[in-house]
Write a structure and sequence with these properties.
CATH architecture of one domain: 3-Layer(aba) Sandwich
Distance between the termini: 45 Å
Strand order of the largest sheet: 2-1-3
CATH topology of one domain: Rossmann fold
Low-confidence stretches: none
Shape: globular
Oligomer: single chain
CATH class of one domain: Alpha Beta
Helix content: 10-25%
Number of helices: 3
Number of strands: 6
Order of helices and strands: EHEHEHEEE
Structural class: alpha/beta
Amino acid sequence: MEKENVKILWLSRHEILPVQRRELQRIFGEVKVDTDTNPFSDASDIIERKERGGYDEIVVVAPLSVIEQLVRRGVKPLWAEMEEVSGKMFNLETDVLLESSSKTRHMRFRRFRRISAIKIEFEDF
């Protein structure tokens, strides 16, 4: 899978963590990661940014409905899998604090995964 100079678009409010950058380098070899913290309007906007920049890969934090539209249109983004941790020391290499109006969560990076489909299952009640 290793390719020279893989260009990655990082679409998130949060900067890439050092451990995430190292993991992308482990997976792809030489990487150039460009961070875009600007809000996007929809999947078309994301695809246009990816194409305009000539990116090979994209990491996006977005609602599942937007990710589902990306996948339908042939874009399989990378997902930064995070886990909530409590009672552990904060590590600048691996951790981020997610703040909302109601609480702050301490999240730790686990791994990258590629999103190949979004499936929603319902149950009656």
